[in-house]
Write a structure and sequence with these properties.
The complex is a heterodimer. By secondary structure, chain A is an alpha/beta fold. Chain A contains 14 helices and twelve strands. In chain A, helix 13 packs across helix 14. Chain B contains 15 helices and four strands. In chain B, helix 3 runs parallel beside helix 7, helix 11 crosses helix 12 and helix 11 packs parallel to helix 15. Classes of the chains: A alpha/beta, B mainly alpha. At the A-B interface, helix 1, helix 3, helix 4 and helix 6 of A face helix 3, helix 12, helix 14 and helix 15 of B.
Chain lengths: 405, 356
């Protein structure tokens, strides 16, 4: 009897759960920028964030930067008196969850989406095109810049391909014109993205650089095996297209093996996290290609961030480049929305796209590549310039700013 | 058929083979039909999108249950087979221009072939060893779609954008009607798949699958051709899974490798374990339950965010934990899953106030 009633109880609970979930409806809030006062309805923007997933270590600050920007904007009058309402939810870097969140946001009537990784950006590029919702994310893959392929995707920063071109130019100069380069990359479309373009660049420029790509297998305790292959190649430079933890491991392995190699990190390993994970001494001297300008470079755009930090009593160390990236990306989107509102059309995804494409240079105070961001109907490549930094004394020290390939 | 209701006797083989014998069974069927017809008009787009995902999950889970639940061949290769269906249908329809229904049919056939190929080790391996062999198939397929050497699959982009479904001049409309139109495509397909699967197990072929599961040596002794039964099970199962994969491609309009990882394989296994191994209805219940569970948890977490912010902050972790806890709970309390629970509820009501 007991077993039966228990089973019935479980089943009843399950049934109630199903019914409840069906009634639950669209009460979803997530973390939001504060709701509206005067000047019209708040403008909803959906954020698909990775807070706890595989890339949460940089995704968390990126999301925080976005929400901070929205808070700052709303505190200073919003957009033409209308507040921006950011709806942010964690998708833990899992594409099916991103798709589900996307459906929810569409249902909530958002006018634009802020995504995060390569996986969700690619998975949603078709849907955002069909639903006419501008989509920005922290995935800077080259195919997304072509409006023919991805009409509603906007890439605010230089693509991974542009970054590897800058890296190769720098290596060519630094080595005096002849060196072997090993490209260690994440074993995925994200990692593969710049590999072929880098090879083509070496050939196009006629550089005397040896170029060999090595996919980095996941779940490795170290990369000594990979490095011995690179050593056999004679590599003096190691370009890494991966996130910070494995890149830091490579730096440690280079140190431990006593190899004479300089790491050139692209974008997602070119941050404070790489330096702190590898340790100040180990990271010393390695080169970082990072399009987002860190706080210590003191661009004009950093002033409003400082204002916000003072208000909140935040420390400089709380604001990493990923945080700034989130802030700057939301800034670009907000300026697009402002322009669309100005034009007097109804505020839709299509009118924001139109505004972003036609508004000319977008001033982000030098936060991205040290210059402006600009889109056109022919190209959604927002910027091609990036900064080159060197890890010195635990800091990112600028070697060159605003470099284009 | 643990207990037949009193007063039901079969006077012919046909009557015994019938799927439904009692009036209440017909009544429930009618009720379900009404619900299925009303749902697209009663639910908003967001919930319809979840219902549509459920239909695709139902197709995949029924397919997997044919292999795992009915034939007893454990498979960790579900994600890979879904990928074969998705990539082949997307490439055929968008790049080569084959009409979508044909491309889906071809995807089904191709997945069946690939599934049969990876089923070959099943002739020599059983249980955990076979699980590892199918894990290899998952890894191989994932490796191919992830690396995509030479850009054969995605033309170097890393993903395939699939055009909005169009057939004989009919094209799925914009977001406002998108989910509803897909509902009318996916619902009948899911119903067809369920019916087909139900009927397979009334044939000699289906019975030979079950004989292989229960005792393969005895099955061979009574004349079941083991090789044929196992390979056919792989083919039939993969065919269904390929259909689910192809529909995923056209419904979500993009194909990326990240949708077909090992996690997906495990999710589907969880569906049929929670629903009930070796039961078509169980696969359906499991698919519904496992698709709704994370959504439900998120809605609850967001609803109580004000009072328990911890829940919303740690949402994905909590979803994973709940996922694991539920599977363990089912394995302990009712290894035969939701389907068995439903049976017991019916029995309880039918025999009330007696125990049996």
């Amino acid at each position: 009897m007991f077993r039966k009633t228990r089973a019935a109880a479980i089943a009843a609970a399950a049934a109630t759960a199903l019914v409840l979930s069906a009634c639950g409806g669209d009460s979803d809030t997530g973390s939001t920028g504060d709701g509206g006062e005067a000047g019209g309805d708040p403008i909803p923007v959906g954020i698909i964030a990775d807070l706890t997933g595989a890339t949460g270590d940089v995704g968390g600050p990126y999301n925080a930067g976005m929400l901070a920007y929205v808070e700052h904007l709303n505190a200073n009058g919003g957009i033409n008196g209308r507040e921006l309402k950011a709806i942010s939810n964690d998708y833990a870097y899992e594409v099916p969850r991103a798709e589900e969140l996307y459906n929810q946001y569409v249902n909530d009537g958002v006018v634009a989406i802020q995504g995060w990784g390569t996986g969700d950006t690619e998975a949603l590029s078709g849907s955002v095109a069909n639903d006419e919702l501008p989509f920005m994310s922290a995935s800077y893959a080259e195919p997304l810049t072509d409006p023919e392929d991805a009409p509603y995707n906007f890439v605010v920063a230089p693509t991974y391909s542009d970054q590897i071109r800058v890296a190769l130019n720098w290596i060519n100069e630094d080595s005096g014109g002849s060196a072997e380069v090993a490209v260690l990359h994440h074993d995925s479309p994200f990692g593969n993205a710049p590999v072929a373009d880098g090879q083509a660049w070496v050939e196009e420029k006629g550089y005397d650089l040896g170029y060999k790509a090595y996919p980095m297998p996941g779940g490795q305790p170290n990369y000594v095996g990979l490095l011995s292959q690179a050593q056999a190649q004679g590599a003096k430079y190691v370009i890494i297209q991966n996130v910070a933890p494995p890149a830091a491991q490579v730096a440690k392995d280079i140190q431990a093996q006593g190899l004479d190699m300089t790491i050139v990190c692209l974008n997602w390993c070119a941050n404070e996290l790489f330096i702190s994970l590898a340790g100040e001494d180990v990271a010393e001297g390695h080169v970082l290609i990072q399009p987002i300008t860190p706080m210590i470079t003191e661009q004009p755009g950093h002033e409003s961030i400082r204002e916000y930090m003072e208000e909140k009593g935040m420390d400089e160390s709380d604001v990493s480049v990923s945080w700034v990236a989130g802030w700057a990306t939301m800034d670009v989107m907000a300026q697009g929305i402002a322009k669309a509102l100005e034009s007097g059309d109804e505020l839709t995804g299509a009118s924001i796209r139109e505004a972003l494409e036609s508004m000319g240079p977008i001033d982000v105070g030098g936060l991205i590549g040290g210059g402006d961001v600009e889109f056109s109907a022919e190209s959604h490549r927002g910027s091609a310039s990036t900064g080159i930094y060197r890890a010195e004394g635990g800091q990112m020290v600028e070697i060159q700013g605003g470099v284009t390939p | 058929m643990a207990a037949t209701a009193t007063g039901i006797h079969h006077r012919s083989y046909t009557s015994e083979l019938r799927l439904r014998a009692t009036r209440s069974e017909y009544f429930r069927l009618a009720l379900l039909a009404v619900v299925l017809l009303v749902v697209p008009f009663a639910l908003g787009n967001y919930w319809l999108s979840i219902v549509n995902t459920i239909f695709i999950a139902v197709i995949g889970a029924v397919g997997l249950n044919i292999l795992v639940g009915y034939t007893g061949q454990i498979s960790l290769g579900q994600g890979g087979f879904l990928a074969v269906g998705a990539y082949s249908s997307a490439i055929l329809s968008d790049r080569i221009g084959v009409p979508v229904p044909l491309s889906i049919l071809f995807a089904v056939a191709l997945t069946a072939v690939v599934g049969t190929f990876f089923g070959l080790p099943g002739l020599r391996l059983k249980g955990l060893y076979l699980a590892i062999a199918t894990l290899a198939s998952q890894q191989i397929i994932e490796f191919i779609i992830r690396r995509d050497y030479g850009g054969v699959l995605t033309q170097g982009k890393g993903y395939i954008n699939v055009d909005r479904l169009e057939f004989l001049g009919f094209k799925i409309g914009a977001r406002a009607v998108f989910e509803q139109q897909w509902y009318w495509i996916l619902m009948p397909l899911a119903v067809l798949v369920v019916l087909a699967a139900r009927n397979i197990f009334r044939t000699g072929l289906g019975r030979s699958f079950m004989a292989v599961r229960d005792q393969d040596i005895a099955a061979e002794a009574i004349g079941v051709n083991l090789t044929r039964a196992k390979l056919t099970a792989f083919a039939v199962s993969s065919g269904f899974v390929g259909l689910a994969g192809a529909l995923t491609a056209h419904y979500s309009e993009v194909v990326t490798w990240e949708k077909f990882t090992l996690e997906v394989s495990i999710l589907y296994l969880a569906m049929i374990i929670v629903g009930g191994l070796g039961s078509v209805a169980g696969a359906v219940y499991g698919a519904v339950f496992m698709t709704l569970l994370p959504v439900l948890i998120r809605n609850v977490a967001n609803a109580v965010e004000g009072s328990v912010p911890f829940l919303a902050d740690q949402l994905p972790a909590i979803q994973n934990a709940a996922f694991g806890a539920i599977i363990i709970a089912f394995l302990i309390f009712e290894p035969r899953g939701l389907d068995r629970i439903w049976q017991r509820m019916k029995d309880y009501i039918r025999f009330w106030p007696f125990r049996y």
